Amino acid sequence: xxxxxxxxxxxxxxxxxxxxxxxxxxxxxxxxxxxxxxxxxxxxxxxxxxxxxxxxxxxxxxxxxxxxxxxxxxxxxxxxxxxxxxxxxxxxxxxxxxxxxxxxxxxxxxxxxxxxxxxxxxxxxxxxxxxxxxxxxxxxxxxxxxxxxxxxxxxxxxxxxxxxxxxxxxxxxxxxxxxxxxxxxxxxxxxxxxxxxxxxxxxxxxxxxxxxxxxxxxxxxxxxxxxxxxxxxxxxxxxxxxxxxxxxxxxxxxxxxxxxxxxxxxxxxxxxxxxxxxxxxxxxxxxxxxxxxxxxxxxxxxxxxxxxxxxxxxxxxxxxxxxxxxxxxxxxxxxxxxxxxxxxxxxxxxxxxxxxxxxxxxxxxxxxxxxxxxxxxxxxxxxxxxxxxxxxxxxxxxxxxxxxxxxxxxxxxxxxxxxxxxxxxxxxxxxxxxxxxxxxxxxxxxxxx
Amino acid sequence: xxxxxxxxxxxxxxxxxxxxxxxxxxxxxxxxxxxxxxxxxxxxxxxxxxxxxxxxxxxxxxxxxxxxxxxxxxxxxxxxxxxxxxxxxxxxxxxxxxxxxxxxxxxxxxxxxxxxxxxxxxxxxxxxxxxxxxxxxxxxxxxxxxxxxxxxxxxxxxxxxxxxxxxxxxxxxxxxxxxxxxxxxxxxxxxxxxxxxxxxxxxxxxxxxxxxxxxxxxxxxxxxxxxxxxxxxxxxxxxxxxxxxxxxxxxxxxxxxxxxxxxxxxxxxxxxxxxxxxxxxxxxxxxxxxxxxxxxxxxxxxxxxxxxxxxxxxxxxxxxxxxxxxxxxxxxxxxxxxxxxxxxxxxxxxxxxxxxxxxxxxxxxxxxxxxxxxxxxxxxxxxxxxxxxxxxxxxxxxxxxxxxxxxxxxxxxxxxxxxxxxxxxxxxxxxxxxxxxxxxxxxxxxxxxxxxxxxxxxxxxxxxxxxxxxxxxxxxxxxxxxxxxxxxxxxxxxxxxxxxxxxxxxxxxxxxxxxxxxxxxxxxxxxxxxxxxxxxxxxxxxxxxxxxxxxxxxxxxxxxxxxxxxxxxxxxxxxxxxxxxxxxxxxxxxxxxxxxxxxxxxxxxxxxxxxxxxxxxxxxxxxxxxxxxxxxxxxxxxxxxxxxxxxxxxxxxxxxxxxxxxxxxxxxxxxxxxxxxxxxxxxxxxxxxxxxxxxxxxxxxxxxxxxxxxxxxxxxxxxxxxxxxxxxxxxxxxxxxxxxxxxxxxxxxxxxxxxxxxxxxxxxxxxxxxxxxxxxxxxxxxxxxxxxxxxxxxxxxxxxxxxxxxxxxxxxxxxxxxxxxxxxxxxxxxxxxxxxxxxxxxxxxxxxxxxxxxxxxxxxxxxxxxxxxxxxxxxxxxxxxxxxxxxxxxxxxxxxxxxxxxxxxxxxxxxxxxxxxxxxxxxxxxxx
Lengths: 449, 928
Ligand SMILES: Cc1cc2nc3c(=O)[nH]c(=O)nc-3n(C[C@H](O)[C@H](O)[C@H](O)COP(=O)(O)O)c2cc1C
Ligand code: SF4
Ligand code: SF4
Ligand code: SF4
Ligand code: FES
Hints:
Strand order of the largest sheet of chain B: 14-13-25-24-23-15-16
Largest interface: A-B, 41 and 42 residues
Oligomer: heterodimer
Bound molecules: flavin mononucleotide, iron/sulfur cluster, FE2/S2 (inorganic) cluster
Low-confidence stretches of chain A: none
Distance between the termini of chain A: 48 Å
Largest sheet of chain A: 5 strands, mixed
Radius of gyration of chain A: 23 Å
Distance between the termini of chain B: 52 Å
Shape of chain B: globular
Low-confidence stretches of chain B: 6-17, 924-928
Mean pLDDT of chain B: 88
Mean pLDDT of chain A: 93
Strand content of chain B: 15-25%
Helix content of chain B: 25-40%
Number of strands of chain A: 12
Number of strands of chain B: 35
Structural class of chain A: alpha/beta
């Protein structure tokens, strides 16, 4: 039986209600934190636990919390990033939908640890129905005295608000999120200053992913030490993986970090193998932004070691032969998949979602899509593949926020590992007049206009 | 300009920097902690070291173009990371490689990407050869564009916008640098422009994607100046105009004293921009300064002297006119004595011209009957502040807005009347500084204010007494300051504490709790500064109100350091200077009392003639004397009293009694129509000299073009007549005259034309040339600051007429026009704001069955005017407001003779009146 810390009670009927949730041990962390622990002690436990941010970057949460500036007389804020818009990622939605009180509980405990009296959950616009589930849970928590003033008679006050986003991927980037939360256009801010110094309304702010905040609950309940023993190396604890693509059992799985990728794909406890008995071709392991890896590199590292579901193992080999755990959006592609078409979908997404603030990303994402479109249309040349490579290399690391890189990495990886597929596309005789016929011949679906 | 930029959003001091050098190409250079890599590099290697596109000298770092990227490593030749230099703080000990091959390639690639989306029609583009994109592209060496289709994706979607009288746009040329958006937000604070759409589809919109004309744009031109391409520009093509020379001068439209850079080609003025290094305006102006210059060669300009014979004006030569004037003046002087003659100088003219005018009246005519139009605006400020502090000028500078914590604006509407200062106040409020507005009207600043004390017009003294009361009662006064720097406090305090707040609340109409909160906010701020305007001075108790504002500053210790003080917002460009130069009947040049023997002697020996020792007449007294047949000749420079002075009929009647009325003017005005002789003067663009702005900054005005044929500068005219009448006065030349002024005006001691430089000097200027940003730092001019209590007194206007005329109409200004509009109505500003309207609240309108746009007859004890109603929440029930920018309305037909008891400034702000829906009878009825 795999270790579960977050989703262990997901199948209990009525777990979305406060009563059932509490009957199953819910809100114990609030009782424990507020009545028995100092804020500093909680931060310490989180540090010990080794918990790393589950939003994608994997930054140690305890360290992030300890950076929070605490000038006197200035409010501090905790903001939960529930904007989850990365293609292939849907774990936060699952968690909030199934066990909304887990997030509410985590928000209370974490806010107490950070000394915040106001906290926000910024939720993706398309998750409007989930926001209602959260609102209900929050209302129940207020009624039960877990929120509001003088919580559990301890004198601690907290107000928790849900803010629904406007439907932009960029608003998941923490500083764009803060801008949006302030009611402005969701453009990322230049850094420094970082949110820990000047975040929401210019005040010190911590932004954490839904899953990160949920993980604080078992850490406070069982202690950081116990949490750190789960997992492998610096990848402690469990992780929610959104598994999708050509597998038998798509869905959200809570895994103990460190299980082999092969086990995750083929075991019946998880993905259950490739659909229709096909062969595995490639995997995007951590959401659309991370490099795609071909079968041989996703199951084993370049050094021949089994690849594990952990931050370190997945990124072993750097971007030459590795990838990233990212947000845990695990997209599996079978042998029939066209990497070129798949990349076109991704470039279209980033073109659509670039905020347009900085020129390399604004123009670069636009051109990458245009060139991909041209290639798919049968008008590409070998030069275009080189141009794609050139553009992506001029975006990475040169933009205001990481969206630019997120757009560049998939392009780089697809060309790096599957250049032959691009060449096959562009090497078609340029005399092809009947594009539709060409599509049929090559099993390409026409591109939507 | 060299600006040192720091990351200002950083609310917490950067951690202590131990090392103070960073390396550029492995050589060490000193850093200033907190500065950006860009300003560090520019400081050491000049402005052109790093190419930039989205950075602009007067805007916060933004980081959108990434062209300014440089390589940064933590160790010598270590692994580098590209960092945008414009917003990344320079790190001590870091290694910076500004031009590595990698970086050059990166810049090239960015520009190439930007160019793919740019219509390459440079040769026909407005800014060709003057385009920052072109410059940067050439610099990074773009040779080819490798991308497939070069069509601009915004070409079709966004047609050129020519809807507005001044602003234009062509967004196919936009490179998405956000400079315009930031200029509109950070400089003007109008929030008209924003970026719509995402990513590749990002594009600039005005308002809710409307045209410039339909947007809330106030035509300040900041966006056009900021835009690096021709995407936003103006009808004058200011950015790129081809010019023979650019002349720096000072705006004539208000006391902010914006520096202007005027482009001239073939002796024609082509366009105006704002120099970024100007201390007064730092690259910003309003639409009057930037765009309203076409009046200067308008066909209506008077271009020959005119003498009225048998009721009609006949053109005359200058010699004929001088002859006529000299003869008539001599005759009147001989017959009635010098005191039957007087002069009104102009706060629009230069210091040198004002000086020479008062010298002419005093030394040549032999009377102290010299006044200036400052009488009708800020005379109570000068008097009130002199009584309390000893000096009648702003105690601090505009730059103090950066240091203050609390701003109190009393009876002033700076976003319309002093737009550049108004924009700065707005910015300060947007940054979270406390803003208190005391005004009967909901002015634009009220939107940004914490406290709006919307008092009934004419109750300033009562309201300020309430504030003083609460500060004393809640013991928020600065006891040390009061003890060491002031006198008269104990008696003042006693009288204050006797006041009944409920009564005061009823008088002012402002809840006392609100007054209390505002007073405590002002008193508790670390540094609080006040600004006041004509809403303070143009009242029967104007001088007292000014003294109370000074009392508030003293009682809270807000005097004599950064970020505090009492700061009158001067209406006209040289109100300060006109008074400094002695255009006042009781004080000569430099405020020395002409009735005191020592000063009288001093002036006599300086001018080399005998002078009268009794004070002369103030403007309203001149009218009264004229009506009593005691005053026979009046010489006026550039003032349209018949439209702007209150109670028009009274003024006109007085002028009609004169034997000789001489007017120096640019245009035929309501006043010049009454003249016996009209002398065509020159506009500010045609003359050199100095203006002194509201913060005592003496700035050089430089002639941009020659006076129009047939006209002369006002100073030259007066000098000519002085010589004609037998006084030896050297030819009019600003630097020479400035030397003369420096010898007699004590606080000009160290001023010379050359040492004023580009940004001028703030007086007092010591003999060594050093100037003064803040007054009264150690002691007051008069020694101890003096507390003088004054009771509120209902204006006679309301006392006498309030019952019969239950409404109060107050007068105000609009951004687009300057005073009576003589100049601005002759520019395209008249297309933007076309008429005067009556502001009236919905309740009052409903009571009289008045709909928005209806003509309303406003009747006062003096007369009636018809004016179009505009229903608004800007005024409270019982209060109306209007402007007098257009002669069609002649609002001053209804204003009164009431005036400040001490300084004689007319009470424009409280006029008892009644209203009804008009029958259209009194429409367009000019005074003459
Ligand atoms: C373009 C972009 C989109 C992002 N979207 C999300 C998101 O949807 N949810 C999320 O938790 N973090 C997202 N992030 C990461 C956040 O910026 C931030 O690192 C994270 O919320 C920190 O939380 P954690 O430390 O708990 O992971 C995104 C980052 C980028 C650059
Ligand atoms: S990298 Fe892209 S998404 Fe991020 S700020 Fe720049 S343009 Fe916006
Ligand atoms: S002219 Fe001024 S107000 Fe108008 S859009 Fe430009 S910056 Fe804004
Ligand atoms: S209009 Fe001009 S200033 Fe504004 S974003 Fe475009 S190029 Fe930049
Ligand atoms: S100048 Fe630095 S990013 Fe544009």
